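ugh ok fine here u go
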Amino acid sequence: MKFFSTAFAAFMAGSALAAPVLDTVAAPCPCKDSDSDKSGVQVPPISPPVPCTTTGLSTPTGVSVPVVGDNHEVGGDGHEVGAGAPATVVVVVQTVVEVVVEVEAKVKAELELIAKIIATADVDAQALLKVLVDLKVDLETLKACVPKLNDLIIDAKVIVAADLQIILDLVARVEALVAEVEVCLKGLVALKAEILAIVGVELHACLEVILGITGPVVKFALAVVAKLAAVVELKVLLGHISTTAGNITSKCNGLQGLLAPVLALVHL
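structure:
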């Protein structure tokens, strides 16, 4: 009985303590068009919610923030990464080099076949024409790739010697390709006029494709040389790139002069 008496007393004491709290929470409804309720307590006005905004937010150092709608992003140090950045320049050049290597093998086989055809006593003009068409198609694969070199942003602060080696590899391979074509053309232009009249149009088409390949390559190479001219430690590599680019231009001029009589023959 003593236990129940004690428990009942505790329950009554708790109820007594809870009653004031309940009385305080229960407040009468405020009157219409009034800023206070019936008890005289002022009701503070409630402001409408303000939309969230990102203005003024700062980005922690080292965190890359992608730029929506653009083809690049900016790192935490403010350096532009992605399309046009020096890393991408090297990637693009490597891609073009891979295409040059692929086309190089096919072109070499076709030039060897041309050499065999024109070495015979009775040259098969139609067979020669077919090989020239195939040559043009393979060269066009490379021509379609080299425009990737246009408008690349060259950052002198980032490009190093290893990158220049890749660029030198590109121009050297293109120079070698043009040199091989030049050797073949020297044999072609010595053919009889009636054969040249048959293949002249395709010879002109091949020349146009070659010029379409070498133009962007030389322009890019010389842009690299100009941009990095002040970097003393890269002077030797830049000199090789400049010389090779000049050789490409000279060879292309030679091809045009070599084919000039043939083009006149077919009225081109």
